TrEMBL record:
Organism the protein comes from: Macrostomum lignano
PANTHER family: ATP-BINDING CASSETTE SUB-FAMILY C (PTHR24223), MULTIDRUG-RESISTANCE LIKE PROTEIN 1, ISOFORM I (PTHR24223:SF443)
Matching Pfam families: ABC_membrane (PF00664), ABC_tran (PF00005)
Region listing for Disordered, in residue ranges: 604-683
Protein name in UniProt: ABC-type glutathione-S-conjugate transporter
Amino acid sequence: MMIHGLLAFANPFLLESLINFSTNGEELWHGILYTFLFFVVAVLSSITFHASFQLSLTCGIKFRSALIASIYRKSLTLTQESRARSTVGEIVNLMTVDSNKIADSIPSFWVVLWSPVQIVIALVMLWAQLGTAVLAGIGIFVVIIPVNGYIMAKAQKLEEKEMKTKDERLKLINEVLNAMKVIKLYAWEPSFQQKISHVRRTEVGFLGQMSYLFSVVIIMWTVAPFLVMVLTFITYIYSGDDHILTASKAFVSLTLFNILRFPIMVLPLTVTQTVNAYVSIKRIQSFLFEDDIDESSVLKLPSSPDGNSVEIEGASFGWKRTDSEPLLKDVNIQVPKGKLIAIVGKVGCGKSSLLQSVLGETVKFCGRITTRSKRNPNEQGSVAYVPQEAWIQNLTVRDNILFGRDFDQARYDEALRACQLEKDLQLLTAGDATEIGERGINLSGGQKQRVSLARAVYQDSDIYLLDDPLAAVDSHVGKKLFHEVIGKSGLLRDKTRILVTHGIHWLPHVDEIVVIDNGRISEQGSYEHLLDHDGPFASFLKEFFLHDGERKRASRSRDVSVSIAEIAAAAPEEEEDEELAAEKAKILQRLASCTSSAHEAAAESPAVVAASPSQSSPPQHASQASSSVNSHCSDTADRLDSKRPSIVRQTSKISQLTSEKLPSRDEDVDGTRKAAEQSGRLIDEETMESGSVSLKSYVFYIAARGYHLGLMTIMAHLAYTAVNIASSVWLSTWTSDPLFSNASVTGNLNNSAYLRDINDYYLSIYGIFGVGVVCIVASFVLNESLLTRLFRVPMSFFDTTPTGRIVNRFSKDMEVVDRELPMIVNDNLESFMATVSCIIVISYTTPIFLAAVVPLGIIYAGIQVFYLPISRQSRRLDSRSRSPILTNFSESIAGAAVIRAFRQQQRFVGISDYRVDNNSRFYFLKLASNRWLGFRLELLGTAAVVIAALLAVLGRDSLTPGLVGLSVSYALQISDYLKWLVHELTELETNTVAVERLNEYSNLETEAPWTTDSLPPSGWPSRGRVEFCNYATRYRPGLDLVLQGISVSFEPGHKVGIVGRTGAGKSSLTLGLFRLIESAFGHIEVDGVRIDRLGLHSLRSALTILPQEPTVFSGSLRSNLDPFDERTDEELWAALDAAHLSSWARGLSAGLAHECGEGGTNLSVGQRQLVCLARALMRRSRLLVLDEATAAVDLETDSLIMATVRQQFADSTVIIIAHRLATIMDSDRVMVLDSGRVREFAPPRDLLAKQDSYFHFLAKEAGLLPGASAK
């Protein structure tokens, strides 16, 4: 870079020699030598510049890759407290925006080092030409530099604010993408769009302010060289009578001023990049300095033959170091090797936190915790963890279960069988090669939990930490999982197991029970010992039966209620199959014999007492329980349909599915598995355009800027160029005419250089301000267009599009539109005008030069045509390869605890590094192709200089010294201008790829309109009558119908249960009711109004749904309940009271203003579901849908939710997608779906009475009828 800078100073000497050659009558070969030296200097300068620049850019790529890798590694080690401070949006910005800013600033480092040296050398050479007159010019710098420093300080503060606002915007977008289904079901799109738009407006406001500041800086440093030149010439002429501004002095000085102009003009860009990089370095530094999880908090040792696998001695734990009181206090536990320990207690007492403490996820305040395993404690396999909320990757079922381990067919098949997944795989498109969507979107809650459990089983670890994995599955499936996986006869019988559970019927089968109450271990011991003791454990059991009894009594209080016991004599209690009912009866009987208050508990739950051992069949052996082919009336049979998106929805007959086989090892070897993986693919490859960027992308961007503003900007640049040409030609005429060499100084300056500077000053202000402002406007319009369309696309788009792919548009692509594209547009205008001015001036001085312009122009165009496709596609590949980085990061953040528990950090780091390296390849290709282009363009520019110099040599007899100086000085500039023009034209198309990608998402197919002219009556629905009229639907054109000819009606106020096997269409019915999928034919009427004629918001805002997955958004508790801010405090508190949350909410210091963490991380699962219940209560509509609302919550929360629904929605029509058959036993009617058709629709009493009914078969299969149990 230094050699390149020094070579630039050879041109003024050569130009002076050439001008002297034209006046002194030197021999011709002298002129040819000067021309040849111009060529040599230009080639050497080009080689040194591009070599140094390529090294700088390569260094920048390495910096960028290292920063992304460091940020990713750090994200896997953050404590919960640090994680709360660093949102997903912020970390995404660090990886995509901040790392790029630092990398882009690396080449500027050389400019910062060399520019002061170059300025000093130029001023010294100007001193040699003009003497002390140079001091007048230096005074300009003395004034400008402090002003520039002040502006940059202001810009730094604005940059920090803008990046924080960008973090907030991306956090909101990420949250919206993860909860889009809930947002659509509640018709909340306008609220969230307004919230994101408000943040975006603030962000654009900061961008606008920075644009104005940087425009002032650019103006100052653009005008500075002209002011320096004018003041220097004035001072030189007035400072002595013999100071004549000859052509030699004028144009040598002009060349030196042009050299001086380069470091001065690039200084604003350099300063801007430096400020941005400094802010980004501070942000990344702050993130990397966040607290890490303390790996030493858990002592990991090799196991001893008969020792304990887990020991906790006098330990206290919390989630924050600043907590005034530990979450868990004075914990003392010893878990012997190979034993099964159960952790029980009330909701929120700290059970899950205890498992997290064993994993080392919490902060240890005191005490000691030790784990011992046969494997190396720091290697994969020592500990396996099954979280309460299953974490599933966007991979195939097999890859989720293998989780990085080598494939072992026998162990794999054993894990599938024990975790009850064999039938599920038969129902999936490609078996275990079926791709699972992000967050397990195409699996039910129970299936996700069983895949999570199978992953742990397959690892064959020494210690298993199981956080209530049986809560999300049906009772008889839970029984199978317990006996075949967890229990004393299960696959893990020789492993050390710590099980958090709310199922009291498992407690007699564990080796030891630990009871937690308010963060302390209140009791621990064997089941028999704790019952005899009549302490907290006995109280816990009483409370369980109290809730259980209240729930059953409430369910029987309705006149239309029915229990299986009333229909089938001596049948066990409807809630469980016979074995579990018998277990509960034994526990209650034992509890009654051990406690004086047991009679009260028995009175509260007479149904349980009725299910005595004498009335129930003996418990079934585990091996028998696994032999049935049709044992999945569970979440397998009832809930897969509720969560599977359109791409993998199946309508195959059950009879066809039973004949299918799982993929075998041989199939994997011969390539069949690859075909299966292709057929089971859910996420498509990201689309990428080919060829030139379409004209519509340019029109889209220009329209977003505003046509009139763009035209005004172009006119300003045209005026700037015209004045520039005129003043340069006038300067040539002035210096060439002896009559004006040293006379009428003031007049000459007023009509030439001074006039040029004044006009340049004002016109450049207008032009630069115009470009900055209109491009900021364009970025805001593009963001709004993308955001609006994102809220309008159907759910199938989000089911098949990774979150990282969408976030990439809102982060990096929007950053290009915000920052890079405005500068590129301005540079294109400037370079085009400068190139045209150079050609005009040179042609004016030496018209024959036009003959060389045409072939040079053709060669330039040819190079651009060859280069452009490479640059454009490399930019597209760079953008597309960035999405997998963000997708992997989002998944890793969500499952960080699981990754750490399985000691898989290095594997995930390797995946991230591979994807970063893959992205860097395309980024490097883009930069290397730029250097290829730059070098060849400079060679052509050198040819232009040689031609101009040669014409000046050959035509010295007809050219004045002024014209020679003018021609060659402009020829020296045209090389840079032509190179700049072609490069900027290429960069314009390359960076317009970002607009193309935004435009792609701005033109996605949308749902039906939110509002239409057809409005429902006021207060609709007033009765809640639902009628399906020959209704059929499919998930998208080309797929099979998932509902076929449904004709049925739900009467007002009825409670309707919907059951059926997987793929029967249960969830499709709900999605059709809310119009997340549209009718293929037929229609639905609610209170006589056809819903397909209503706007989506008119429909969805009038209905209420309580979904399975509890969704809480970051923000206040109030905004979560009432996002449109339409309700009073009294109404909100009433809803919280009805949802049994008021005591918790009133205990919060901020009350309704309490800030919920991102994704509700500072609330328990039960609390989140109760918040969703309160949200539903705010509407109190006449039509309520329960979409497995209690599938993943504990029994206590289940009881609260169902009791509240029965009380608060007593007069409403309630549609219940069944989680357990027992849930819908007290319904008015039950609809049984099979392959998208209504098979049966009648009261449950009537269906159970018919021995040949399908519902009777399902109930018997589930073990709910006398003499039958789940097989």
